[in-house]
């Protein structure tokens, strides 16, 4: 009984974060919009934001990246990087004669001596031969189609994300009074101060109460805090006792990604959205 009481006391140390849509009017739960706009004269104001977790996370990403242009450039470069990796890998598989490149077979040119130095153009196959090798490999065509589908999904995700960041850009300019060209001169602390002042003028969430810096950080780091708490309470299997080595912590990027997919972001996750658990 004493051990159970001690365990209950430890679990109570993690205070539940209040949900900002507990006082939402009936029917509002079905809305999917991130921001609810209410027009007042020439400018827009942001009232009763449904998903404060995503909203504050995008604000925190927008600030250190110095605005929308940097976020846009980052997404474009990621898409270009994916295309480059796939294209270059296909080129290395289909368009390079490795026997010539590694000099295991002599060059079949009458004007080149047998012991001549091999250059890169000598090892590159002509375009028609490269295309024939590509069409003759069924598994490679399948992988290219799969890579194209993944790239299209990433493109759609990037476009949706950019639409959300454009909303955040408008929020910085119209609600917080921070122009895009002056964003690099503002620290995250000053952005938080303007957010708290805005909450006092017009409520960002439904309960009419003041936000604090801790509220903002709790919502930005909600999933990470859950993960840290579960590791601290030994609910996640990341500590092992190996013979001769003793206790070992094992948490790779792949394991962390799978845990987040199972607990937070997958179709069978504990969370039904970014801020509330399933019933």
Automatic annotation (TrEMBL):
GO terms for cellular component: autophagosome; phagophore assembly site membrane. GO terms for biological process: autophagy of mitochondrion; lipid transport; piecemeal microautophagy of the nucleus; protein localization to phagophore assembly site; reticulophagy. Residues 9-18 have a biased composition (Basic and acidic residues). Residues 19-29 have a biased composition (Acidic residues). The chain crosses the membrane at residues 139-159. It is found in: Preautophagosomal structure membrane. It is a multi-pass membrane protein. PANTHER family: APG9 AUTOPHAGY 9 (PTHR13038), AUTOPHAGY-RELATED PROTEIN 9B (PTHR13038:SF14). This is Autophagy-related protein 9. It comes from Certhia familiaris.
């Amino acid at each position: 009984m004493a051990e159970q009481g001690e365990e209950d006391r430890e679990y109570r140390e993690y205070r539940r974060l209040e949900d900002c849509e507990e006082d939402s009017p009936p029917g509002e739960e079905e809305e999917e919009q991130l921001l609810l706009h209410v027009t007042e004269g020439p400018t827009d104001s942001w009232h009763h934001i449904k998903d404060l977790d995503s909203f504050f996370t995008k604000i925190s990403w927008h600030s250190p990246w110095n605005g929308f242009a940097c976020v846009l450039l980052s997404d474009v470069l990621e898409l270009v990087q994916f295309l480059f990796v796939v294209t270059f890998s296909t080129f290395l598989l289909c368009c390079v004669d490795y026997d010539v490149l590694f000099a295991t077979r002599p060059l079949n040119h009458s004007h080149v001596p047998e012991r001549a130095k091999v250059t890169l153009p000598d090892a590159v196959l002509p375009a028609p031969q490269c295309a024939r090798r590509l069409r003759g490999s069924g598994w490679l065509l399948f992988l290219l189609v799969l890579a194209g589908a993944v790239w299209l999904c990433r493109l759609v995700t990037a476009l949706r994300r950019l639409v959300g960041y454009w909303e955040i850009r408008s929020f910085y300019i119209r609600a917080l009074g921070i122009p895009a060209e002056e964003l690099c001169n503002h620290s995250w602390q000053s952005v938080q101060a303007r957010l708290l002042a805005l909450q006092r003028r017009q409520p960002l969430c439904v309960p009419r109460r003041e936000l604090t810096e801790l509220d903002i950080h709790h919502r930005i780091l909600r999933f990470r805090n859950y993960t840290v708490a579960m590791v601290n309470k030994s609910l996640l299997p990341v500590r092992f006792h190996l013979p001769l080595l003793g206790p070992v912590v094992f948490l790779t990027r792949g394991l962390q990604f799978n845990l987040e997919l199972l607990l937070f972001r997958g179709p069978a996750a504990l969370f039904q959205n970014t801020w509330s658990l399933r019933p």
